[in-house]
């Protein structure tokens, strides 16, 4: 059971909504990659609502079931490109932040091999945004399973 309805406070969340839209509109990150990142961070944080949303949005964007099923074990399969692997590793470290030494120079350089600086900034903003949404939905105890694609 949810603690409060996110929708009642949607006006307060407009900066997050707008930032997410702007990241997508700038086009530095492929739409399928965006959904993979949003899903992977939501897996780490355990946000059922966001996992429901982004798995459906990923499928609507043309993502395959197989890649969605294996996302939590992306290191153990060849289904993800080198740029996707770099972005996923970067997103995981930014989400987990095990220490102030996270996001090593080596990982940053690996990401920079695949993304221009503006793309790296958008990747960081994307991870920050989904982590905020995860925390909002987890704190509100928003129930997953009822999201319809293209309804946000």
From TrEMBL:
Name any one Pfam family assigned in the record: CMD
The Swiss-Prot or TrEMBL record annotates one GO molecular function as: peroxiredoxin activity
UniProt KW keywords: Oxidoreductase, Peroxidase
**Which SUPFAM superfamilies does the entry link to?**
AhpD-like
Which residues does the UniProt record annotate as the domain Carboxymuconolactone decarboxylase-like? Answer: 12-93
TM stretches of this protein: none
Identify the domain of life.
Answer: Bacteria
User: Which InterPro entries does the record cross-reference, listed alphabetically?
Assistant: AhpD-like, AhpD_core, CMD-like
Query: What name appears for this protein in its UniProt entry?
Result: Alkylhydroperoxidase AhpD family core domain-containing protein
Q: What organism is listed for this UniProt entry?
A: Rhodanobacter glycinis
């Amino acid at each position: 059971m949810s603690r409060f309805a996110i929708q009642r406070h949607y006006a307060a969340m407009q900066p997050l909504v707008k930032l997410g839209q702007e990241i997508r509109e700038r086009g530095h990150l492929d739409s399928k990659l965006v959904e993979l990142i949003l899903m992977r961070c939501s897996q780490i944080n355990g946000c059922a609502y966001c996992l429901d949303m982004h798995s459906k949005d990923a499928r609507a964007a043309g993502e395959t079931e197989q890649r969605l099923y294996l996302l939590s074990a992306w290191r153990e399969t060849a289904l993800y490109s080198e740029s996707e692997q770099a972005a996923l590793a970067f997103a995981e470290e930014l989400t987990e932040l095990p220490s102030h030494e996270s996001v090593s120079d080596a990982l940053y350089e690996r990401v920079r091999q695949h993304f221009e600086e503006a793309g790296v900034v958008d990747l960081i903003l994307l991870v920050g945004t989904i982590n905020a949404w995860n925390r909002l939905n987890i704190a509100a105890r928003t129930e997953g399973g009822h999201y319809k694609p293209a309804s946000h």
